[in-house]
Amino acid sequence: MPESVRDASMTLLTEVQRRPLDPGYAEAARRRALTGAPHRGGRTAVWLVVVGLLLGLGVTTATLSLRQPQAGAVAARRLLEQQVRQHRADAESLAAQNADLSAQIAALQNQALRSDDPALLAQLQRWAVSAALVPVTGPGLRVVLTDAPSDSTTKDNPDLRVQDVDLQVLVNGLWAAGAEAIAVNGQRLTATTAIRTAGSAVLVDLVPLVNPYTVEAIGSAADLQTSLARSSAGQHLATLRATYGIGVTMTSQRRLQLPGAGPTTLQEASTPSMTASPSPSPTPTPTPSPTPTPRTASTPTATPSRSVRAAAGEVVTQSSVVAPGTGGEDR
Fold first, then answer.
1. C-alpha 236: how far from its chain's center?
2. Which of 78, 138, 141, 299 is the most buried (most CB within 10 A)?
3. What is the structure's pLDDT at 214?
4. Is 178 exposed, middle or buried (0-12, 13-18, 19+ CB in 10 A)?
């Protein structure tokens, strides 16, 4: 019988069990013993620990020095913060002066008209309420829109935040439901009010608003809520709540006090007069092409200014606000 072949698959494990120490270490120890070389003791270990600590301290110091802002950057940041605070204070002071002067003008106007034309004064006072020039008080409906809760993975998702189109739909729905006066976060809406988005902020007449957004409308709370629920604006709010998790809260209020928007600056446009007729230009003679190339007519596609929320039951509105007395046209 031929001799059976030995299985070499277990040779490595066998060697490890028989000789756990590598032969090279044993040979080095034998040479050190023959030559009388000194054995590394505790002094060497202490030096290694000291060197390691020094290296770690140097790396830590360099990292901290790199992470700390430079003196120039810190000074520039402080200067910008100071300028922002100063400009904000100046803007608030100018706004207060503007309100004071507007009140003085209104008082002088009322004083002059009270003696000269009382009927005109009464008519102007009635129009001032519709034009949102004076504060108003009365019962109404309060609607609060809140951004949906988000985590680190969804904090940059714009669909989870209240956008300008949401406020536009809600405001238009309240006007259509019979609201007499509307304010968003204390900003009174007029016939020329614009609700827009700048970055991640919602602007009402160039005034930035922050979450949550409180929309207050004066009128019959029951009628406003019923009409709003039956309209497309109510469907839009329901979609925001069910699909995107945006908070929508409606409460009836016995007394709401909305501020006035102040005087409105009106602008008008006129057609320029045609003083001189343009001289006719010579018509070039077209050169016929030997082989006409057929061209396919295409319909231009309008690109929306923002992404429309793609969800069932939502409505698409113009990016504007409809106010009473404008004939139902979007401005």
1. 20
2. 141
3. 94
4. middle
**How many Å apart are CA 61 and CA 330, to the nearest integer?**
63
Dist. CA 248–CA 92, nearest whole Å: 32
The Cα–Cα gap between 190 and 83 comes to 32
User: Vertex 150, ends 144 and 154: CA angle to 5°?
Assistant: 130
Give the Cα separation of 151 and 160 in Å (integer).
11
Instruction: Find the length of the chain.
Output: 331
Q: Which of 319, 74, 312 is nearest to 202 (CA)?
A: 319
Q: Cα(first)–Cα(last) distance of the chain, in Å?
A: 106
The position carrying tokens 């957004």 is 213
pTM for the predicted model, two decimal places = 0.56
Q: Which of 109-123, 271-285, 306-320 has the lowest mean pLDDT?
A: 306-320
DSSP secondary structure, 35-49, as one string: HTPPPP-HHHHHHHH
